[in-house]
């Protein structure tokens, strides 16, 4: 735990909390570090959540599976990301999504009952953490709206272009690196891999995009519409 304090200070959840205070805070809430191998579930749909997770290393995907076994990736998270926070303010209800290690990962689990209640000692840094949490939940809601903009498009082409346009805006470049590989991107867009590959090739032939593995270039302004 001590080896991760400096890193944890860079996580938005702990903005404004000094190193000594953060060490005390994590002890106060009983935070525990756990490791997960690739494809191991951290949270399962249907579970009643007891903690939020902070990724110390590796990658975690938030996924949803329907009754037919179709898998949709809702989020792909890397070191420093926090997950599960949106469920904290919603009370103790079963999860509708799962969190799965996309590669071998280390996660800090923080019990949300202690996290979201004012410390009996009225520690100011605990109050700071709660304020940070509110900001994070708000930003996560904004991110979910952006994802809905992609996934609710009618055609696969519209979904691809909207997704790439959002990445172009985030990375401030017409050439972007997608965090998702082809299989995961297909899951995110609600398509199968072969359909996605065919559509990408057609779009390249029509000079809408150029791509090489996870690098994509939006060729002209039409692609951004």
Automatic annotation (TrEMBL):
Statement: the UniProt record of this protein carries the keyword Glycosyltransferase: no
Keywords: DNA-binding, Transcription, Transcription regulation
Record domain HTH crp-type: where: 154-222
UniProt keyword Repeat, yes or no: no
Pfam families reported in the protein's UniProt record: cNMP_binding, HTH_Crp_2
GO annotation, cellular component aspect: cytosol
A molecular function (GO) term: DNA-binding transcription factor activity
Span of domain Cyclic nucleotide-binding: 13-108
Stated name of the protein: cAMP-binding domain of CRP or a regulatory subunit of cAMP-dependent protein kinases
UniProt lineage: Bacteria, Bacillati, Bacillota, Clostridia, Lachnospirales
């Amino acid at each position: 735990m001590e080896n991760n304090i400096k890193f944890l200070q860079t996580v938005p959840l702990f903005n404004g909390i000094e190193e000594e205070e953060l060490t005390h805070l994590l002890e106060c809430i009983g935070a525990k570090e756990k490791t997960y191998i690739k494809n191991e579930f951290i949270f399962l749909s249907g579970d009643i959540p007891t903690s939020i997770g902070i990724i110390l290393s590796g990658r975690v995907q938030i996924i949803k599976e329907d009754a037919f076994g179709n898998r949709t990736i809702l989020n792909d998270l890397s070191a420093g990301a926090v997950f599960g926070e949106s469920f904290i303010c919603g009370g103790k209800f079963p999860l509708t999504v799962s969190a799965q290690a996309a590669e071998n990962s280390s996660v800090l689990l923080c019990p949300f009952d202690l996290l979201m209640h004012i410390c009996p000692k009225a520690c100011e840094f605990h109050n700071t953490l709660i304020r940070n949490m509110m900001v994070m939940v708000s930003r996560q809601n904004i991110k979910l709206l952006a994802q809905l903009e992609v996934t609710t498009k009618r055609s696969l082409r519209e979904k691809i272009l909207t997704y790439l346009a959002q990445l172009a805006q985030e990375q401030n470049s017409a050439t972007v690196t997608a965090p998702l590989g082809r299989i995961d991107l297909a899951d995110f867009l609600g398509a199968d891999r072969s359909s996605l590959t065919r559509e990408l090739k057609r779009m390249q032939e029509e000079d809408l995009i150029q791509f090489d593995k996870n690098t994509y270039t939006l060729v002209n302004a039409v692609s951004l519409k």
